Structures are given as C-alpha cells and as structure tokens.
Amino acid sequence: MITLALSKGRIFDETLPLLKAAGIEVLEDPEKSRKLILPTNQASVRVVLVRASDVPTYVEYGGADLGVTGLDTLIEHGGQGLYQPLDLNIAKCRMSVAVRADDDYAALVRTGARLKVATKYTAIARDFFATKGVHVDLIKLYGSMELAPLTGLADAIVDLVSTGNTLKANHLVEVERIMDISSRLVVNQAALKLKQAPIRAIIDAFAGAVKKD
Ligand code: PRT
Ligand code: MG
To answer: What pTM did the predictor assign?
Structure first.
C-alpha cells in the first residue's frame, strides 16, 4: 500500500492533475465526504487527509509514504527525515513582511528598537530578521495574523500573500518579500527504499506533469 498525505483545499485541488498524470484518481470528494482516508482507482494507493501543517510530520514518521506540503510548512517543520525530490510549482504565493498602511516601516527599523513581529512562521521570520540584523520579539500566532498590527499586538506581521487582497482589506501593506513559496513533494526515506518502484513511478509521473513558469 502507498499512502499519500494531502491537506484539503488548494493543495488537494492542485495535486489532482499531477495524480491524474500518474494514473491515480481519488474516488471521493473531500469537501463532501467526512472520510479521512480516501480510496483511489488503484487498490494499492490511498490518500489521507491531514491538516496542512501536519503533512511533513505524517511523512517523517511513516504515517504516510509521500505528501505534498508548502515550502513555508516544510521550512517550519525542519525537513528532517524527508526526501524532497520535486518542486511541484503549485499553491504558489510569497512570504512577506506587512505593516499598517499608515506606519513608516523604514523608520521603525531605523530606530533600532525591537520590532514586535506576529507570525505563524517563526523559523522563517527569525532567520530573515537575523540576516537583516534587525532585533525582533516574535509573537507566535496560529491564525488571522492581519489583526495583530491593527490591534497593537505587533508592529509587523510575516505571512503568506497571494493576491494581496487580504492585506488591502485590512489596510496593511507589503514592505518586504522574504521568499517565493510553492508546494513540494516530500517522501519518507525508509519508504523510498522499501517501496522503491511504485514511489519512483509516482515521482517520475509528477515530474513529467509539473508546469513550468
Ligand atoms: O488552514 P490551516 O491552518 O489548516 O492550514 P494552512 O493555512 O497552512 O492550509 P492552506 O490549505 O490554507 O494552505 C496550504 C498551503 O497553501 C500553504 O502552506 C501555502 O504554501 C499555500 N498557499 C498559497 C497559501 C496561500 N497561497 C494563501 N494565500 N496559504 C495561505 N494563504 C492565505 C494567507 O495566509 C493569507 O491569510 O491567504 C491569505 C492571503 O491571500 P491573498 O490572496 O488575499 O493575498
Ligand atoms: Mg489556511
């Protein structure tokens, strides 16, 4: 049995065409079914639905043989025990710093005072500001980062931006782009050895179906 970990939503949706290229069709719609294990047209392949941030953990410990995860989530996890053969070029966005539209970010940084930064992505934020030489107090949040600068909880946020509409709707502006983000295929290293042929077949089919920019 080959088990693939996916999260519902954009990652599931954007992985479907890649699965199709590998001859795999998921037999149930995760938005309609309450099942967490979905069968496919191949008796030896199944999909498990996990929280996006849990995909690397499932694959690391062998709860799944493969998974699809955002680079953001992969960096925060650390990537230990994971073989990362492919950039799938899906679920694209960027990791950015944003502040209130009426705040002067450059001036805030220039004062040298510690910057209060709210984020779900503490590893990425810590590394980015350390490289810049800016001292920060990181405030870990699990959702709605946009609210932090509006309520005085933080001076800035580090969050994912796609269209920019969420920032705009909350009177925030993007002031730095930290990195481009896309989703990656991750594979359990032991599974790759034990189930080499079927896993290689999936990796190769995905590689052939990845859309270039
Ligand atoms: O929702 P949950 O807490 O379970 O997990 P999750 O938010 O990590 O999952 P999901 O499915 O929302 O995101 C999975 C992956 O999709 C992320 O890890 C990213 O790699 C990728 N991705 C691509 C995005 C976006 N685009 C995106 N726009 N993830 C989140 N967003 C959010 C962003 O955080 C912000 O709140 O969308 C909002 C901004 O969107 P715009 O279009 O208004 O700029
Ligand atoms: Mg989300």
So the answer is: 0.97
